[in-house]
Structures are given as structure tokens and as C-alpha cells.
Amino acid sequence: MLLCGCAPMTRPDSAPPTISSRYFTSSDGVRLHVLEAGTARNAASESVIVLVPGWSMPASIWQSQLEGLGRNHRVVAFDPRGQGRSEVPAQGYHIDRRADDLHDLIGQYSSVVLVGWSLGALEALQYLDRHGDDRIAALVLVDSSVGEGPASAPSQFPDALRGDRRTTVSDFIHAIFAKPRSDAENNALLESALQMPLEQSIALFPSTVPREHWRDLAHGFRKPLLYIATPQFAGQARELQAARPATQVGVFESAGHALFVDEPEQFNRLLEDFLSAKQPPQ
Which end of the chain, N or C, is more open, meaning fewer C-beta atoms within 10 Å of its C-beta? Predict the structure, then answer.
């Protein structure tokens, strides 16, 4: 297991890549938004990095990855339906439709490295279940339960949302960062999260799916897999690596849930090292 408390990576002297914005239409007619940056060093053979945010968060939360990884790779950050600058439709807020939205995005590229954070990690696994791994060169799961170990206590979060949504979401946003963010940044995330209707936002949680479903999908993935977590999931990281020895693991000891925001240089370096390593399939 790799403990990521290392010295900061030296940034290249080159300017950050331009970040562009575009939309596409899902197979059920919803207008979805992505941010794109960078150019692959070998566009004919390199996979596109696709970044999927967690519950209610926008694509722009991956800003440091678009800027940092975009120096050497083509990087795409996704706004799932109802999030960021994507359309907020009345329907489609369940794990299968979200996986199908990913399929509509991934189908635009010949090969991708799929990076899912929190709820986005489960949506990435569900994509594999519904659509297979033909276009997936590698998978990166970031600070999300992967079905290992004992189940945690039932979440009271949906009840808290119904009781006082604004305060609950605000507290959630402050809690995901170990390093304080500005009021402007936190308020922008809050207003973005609140654009989705309340019940649709709660419907995003796949609470009826057995935990073993995620475990079996992770175990069954036969291509390179990197699991990056904070200490809350360190036990699951150990169990996943024991069950699937080819899994690479990184634990960020001092970062919050949004570890790629708290420690962007370390996160980007870990991902760069993972992409450049010659790894045998599991």
C-alpha cells in the first residue's frame, strides 16, 4: 500500500492547458456538459482520462486535474445530469441511467481511463456491469466504498436533507475538504448542488444495491485498477488488494474526502505514475 504524504510535485514551466466547454445529448434526450483540456502526447494510442465527480458536485471540482494532467493528456471532466452545467431533467436519477449517461460519453472515444470519485466510483462500476470494459483501458476509484469489509451503519443523510437541505449540503461541502476553501468556492458548490430537486438528489444514492455487487465488479475487472482513498477506506483498500493483488492502492493520510482538491499535485503524480507503469492484467 502506498502512503501519499510525499513532497509536492514540481510543476512544469509550461502554461496550463486551455479548458474548453461543450455539450452532448444523452440517448434519452438530456443535454449534458463536459469540460475538456489537453492533448495526448500520442493521440493515436493514448487513452482519454474521464473524470466523474461525486454526489451533487460539478465537473469544475476537477480543475486542478484538468490543468495538471492536461499538460500531457487529453482530460475530460463530466457534469452528470442535474449537476454543474448539465440539464436538470425530471427523470433519470438512478444508477442505471447514470451509467448509461457515462456510456453515451465514453462512446465518443476509442479508449478511456475512467476515474470515479465517491458516488462517481459506483457509477463507473455500474457502467462496467451494463456496458462492459471494451473501451476502458484502466479504472481509478477514488474514496468510495467498494463493498469490502463490514457494512457501515445506515446513513441518516437523506433524513437530514429533508429536514434542512441547505444547512446539510453546506455542512457536507465543508466536511469534504481538509484544507479550508474560500467562502466564494464553498457557496458556488452549494448553489450548484441545490439546483437538483431534493427527491432526485436523494434518489441518486443506490441504497437498495447490495454492497457485494460493487465488490464483485471490482474483483472481476481484469485491467489495471487504482484505488485511492483516505483513512476511512484504508481497511477496504487492504481487503481489495488482498483479494485482487494486481490492484494499486494509494492512501492519502491527511486529505479530506475530496483528496484530489486538497492534495492535487500528489494526486496527479500518483495518477501519472499509474498510467505510465507497465502493469499486467489481474
Answer: N
